[in-house]
Write a structure and sequence with these properties.
- It is a single chain.
- The protein is of the alpha/beta class.
- It has a single domain, classed as 3-Layer(aba) Sandwich (Rossmann fold), CATH 3.40.50.2300.
- The protein contains five helices and five strands; from the N terminus they run βαβαβαβαβα.
- A five-stranded parallel sheet has the order 2-1-3-4-5, with helices on both faces.
- α2 runs parallel beside α3.
- The radius of gyration is 13 Å and the shape is globular.
- The relative contact order is 0.19.
- It binds magnesium ion.
- The site of magnesium ion has 6 residues, from loops.
Length: about 120
């Protein structure tokens, strides 16, 4: 991975998770900004409002709009479809569905720092 100034959209309805992710990302040396969203609808709003998001970290179970719905919207949008998405979830049951709808990678919560950075390196080229 050559890019070290990534803008990451972190989407999770759990504020503690969001803060933890932000902290890990900002310490990684690869990220210059973390944009936070607390559900899928907020996430789509951020994606439409700005064009500099390099990577999405996406929770699945969220109120208002869940992660699978976000995958469907992003992968159907000509301007967004190539943005890498790493799905974050508490169990493996959604893995098949997430990959089917276009997730690039999958991480099981609780997220560990080295796993997160390794996955980011695997999807950012
Ligand atoms: Mg959740």
């Amino acid at each position: 991975m050559t890019k070290t100034d990534l803008v990451v959209l972190a989407v999770d309805d759990d504020i503690i998770n969001l803060k933890l992710l932000k902290s890990m990302l900002m310490k990684s040396g690869y990220v210059k900004e973390v944009v936070e969203a607390k559900n899928g609808s907020d996430a789509i709003g951020e994606l439409k409002a700005r064009d500099d998001i390099d990577l999405i970290l996406l929770d699945i179970i969220m109120p208002v709009m869940g992660g699978i719905e976000v995958l469907k919207v992003v992968r159907a949008d000509n301007n967004l479809r190539q943005v890498p998405i790493i799905v974050l979830t508490t169990d493996e049951t959604k893995k098949g569905e997430a990959l089917e709808f276009g997730a690039n990678a999958f991480l099981i919560k609780p997220i560990r720092n080295d796993d997160l950075i390794r996955k980011i390196k695997s999807v950012i080229v």
